[in-house]
Amino acid sequence: MKKIRVHVRPRRRCLTAHSLGLLSPALYLWYRSRILYHPRVNSYCHSRPTIMSFRFYRLAALAAFLLFSGVFFPAAAAPAIGQPAPDFSGPDLVGAPLNLSALRGKVAIVHFWATWCPSCREEMPILDAFYVQHHAQGVEVIGITVDRPRARGKAVAYMKGFHFPAALLDDAVKNGFGTPGALPVTYVIDRRGIVRAIFTPEKALLSAPALEGAVLPLAEK
Questions:
Q1: Are 70 and 137 in contact (CB under 8 A)?
Q2: Which of 5, 63, 92, 221 would you label with 75, given CA atoms 20 to 30 Å apart?
Q3: What pTM does this model have?
């Protein structure tokens, strides 16, 4: 493999590598992978001669992933049944404020969906019919679409056929639910803010009878 040399003064090169190391191990590894250390540099850095290779790129990529996704910016864990529901707030698709914590005292259904998701398109009419029928009993529904901002117009047009509000996940000011790993996902939250049921494609499919069994006992309390 052809060695790539970077024309940087040895001492400056060493200081640059060490400075990057203080900021981020991933940046340090990336810098090392791009530079051929020679004896004069080794006298400053006390490093072994290093050549560019895929090994260093893989190591740098792994370090960057662990650094930015797992250390400084940990992903939110999905809530489990019996745990307090996390908060979600932000503008809905028409700009009105949407706040899950403001629904405390009501039975809330939080539904994650997308316009490109076939199963979501099957479940949305079920949710809407249930919402219209039981809204007077204190049942609220919030739809959260994972569509990209560029598809906002499509999501707005799709929601014109439904009665409950929806928001774009990317617009969230607070999102304790994180990003769902699969769609659709539906959370049923009781009047005290506790998650009581979760509907996912892997565990339980959403249906009108399933909603009645999970939500109506909570609405009657």
A1: no
A2: 92
A3: 0.66
pLDDT for 201: 83
C-alpha R_g of the chain: 25
Q: Phi/psi at 138 (nearest 5 deg)?
A: 95, 25
Q: How far apart are CA 144 and CA 158, in angstroms?
A: 13
**Closest C-alpha to 13, from 29, 30, 37, 33:** 37
- Each residue of 70-84: pLDDT tens digit? 333 344 567 899 999
Both tokens of 55, joined, read 């090994």
Phi and psi dihedrals of 55, rounded to 5? -60, -45
How far is residue 110's CA from residue 88's CA, in Å, rounded to a whole number?
10
Map out the domains of the chain as residue ranges. 10-71, 88-219
CATH for the stretch 88-219: 3.40.30.10
Angstrom distances, CA of residue 55 to CA of 3, 38, 72: 14, 19, 25
Nearest to 189 by CA among 128, 136, 125, 142: 142
Residue listed under structure tokens 């910016």: 73
